[in-house]
Design goal:
Layout (H helix, E strand, L loop, with lengths): L1 E2 L5 E9 L4 E3 H5 L6 H8 L3 E3 L7 H16 L8 E5 L10 H9 L5 E5 L5 H14 L6 E7 L10 H4 L5 E9 L6 E9 L7 E2 L11 H5 L6 E2 L1 H22 L9 E4 L4 H11 L10 H4 L6 H11 L8 E8 L3 E8 L1
Parallel strand pairs: 5-6, 5-7, 12-13
Antiparallel strand pairs: 1-9, 2-8, 3-4, 7-8, 9-14, 10-11, 13-14
Helix pairs in contact: 3-4, 8-9
Length: about 325
């Protein structure tokens, strides 16, 4: 666990974008053997947004980025770095971040992607905050963006009911008078369980062949029961210890931003930590699991509703393929 030292770092602005097309549970029931009741009961999801044809991860990332830059009052030319958290890049290379940097005209910024499963958002915020705190950067645009729909097997009800497309973004910079700051971060991984969430086809281990296509290796695969067990065993004690090491109890955190993967998982984790449901941010019913974008979308909606008060503490946490997990705490 590490505290952010040096220059205090704050959230300057946020933004989001989700595609117009909506896929409801009833729509899915016409594709696979499922029902609205079955999906809601097991996941809490009611709808998800799906990218239109030709709408790429870089497309949704750019739109969320422009919203965040407008909110922060920052011109793209003022950015020092652009970090994109994603597990569904347009291409393996180039990455999404350099494409977005070009689309924005952020001529003075570097750019790179972070791919750490659904935890990529937490990892990216921690890297950005650490870079600013050290004095290496002044203004960083962090984007969580996913267009997972082309990577989903729409005949597999275990995965196709879960995921949605969208993007969220934040602009981070040195704290100005009266602004908040990031306090600490903890980033973890258990690579012994790397096989629980995978997309194996098309790269080094399984180069694209007729056989990999036939065996559906180019789609997201997930061992749902194993993931559920991992999260329930690992995440609550991790969060309790992380809060303690940061000088807080779970009750001291005013707002909890869990990765929007499964409402049952979120509610069970909150219950084990003794967190009031009123402190837990939930938007999974509308967007489904947007992977690395989920925390940014939830934060953007939350800030747009002007619910945050000075001095309140926010904890962002996620888990994902790897298996990675982590948390980061911000004080308004």
């Amino acid at each position: 666990m590490a505290f952010f030292r040096g220059i205090p770092v704050s959230l300057w602005g946020s933004g989001m974008y989700v595609p117009e097309k909506v896929l409801t549970n009833d729509d899915l029931s016409r594709l696979v053997e499922t029902s609205d009741e079955w999906i809601r009961d097991r996941t809490g999801i009611q709808r998800r947004h799906i990218a239109a044809e030709g709408e790429l991860t870089s497309t949704v990332a750019e739109k969320a980025a422009r919203a965040a830059l407008d909110d922060a009052g920052v011109d793209p030319s003022e950015l020092d770095m652009i970090i994109v958290a994603t597990n569904s890049p347009d291409t393996l290379f180039p990455g999404v971040a350099p494409k977005v940097q070009g689309l924005l005209g952020a001529l003075n910024a570097g750019a790179f992607d972070v791919q750490s499963g659904c935890t990529s958002g937490v990892y990216s915020m921690a890297v950005a905050a650490g870079g600013i705190a050290s004095g290496m950067w002044k203004r960083v645009l962090v984007i969580g963006a996913e267009v997972l729909s082309p990577l989903i097997d729409w005949t597999d009800r275990n995965t196709c009911v879960l995921f949605g497309d969208g993007a969220g973004a934040v602009v981070l910079g040195p704290s100005r008078e009266g602004e908040g700051k990031f306090i600490s971060a903890e980033l973890r991984s258990d690579g012994t369980k790397h096989e629980q969430i995978t997309l194996p086809g098309g790269v080094v281990q399984y180069p694209a062949t007729a056989e990999t296509v036939k065996n559906k290796l180019h789609y997201v695969a997930m061992k749902g029961n194993d993931v559920f067990k991992f999260v329930n065993r690992t995440i609550p004690p991790f969060l309790r210890d992380y809060c303690g090491a940061s000088g807080f109890s779970p009750e001291d955190i005013d707002w909890w931003f869990f990765h929007q993967a499964n409402q049952r998982i979120i509610e069970r984790s909150a219950e084990r930590l003794g967190i009031s449901p009123d402190k837990v941010i939930l938007n999974i019913a509308e967007y489904g699991n947007t992977s690395a974008a989920s925390l940014f979308i939830a934060l953007s909606e939350f800030l747009r509703e002007k619910r945050l008060r000075k001095g309140e503490k926010l904890l962002f946490t996620a888990f994902g393929a790897g298996m990675t997990y982590g948390g980061i705490i911000y004080e308004a």
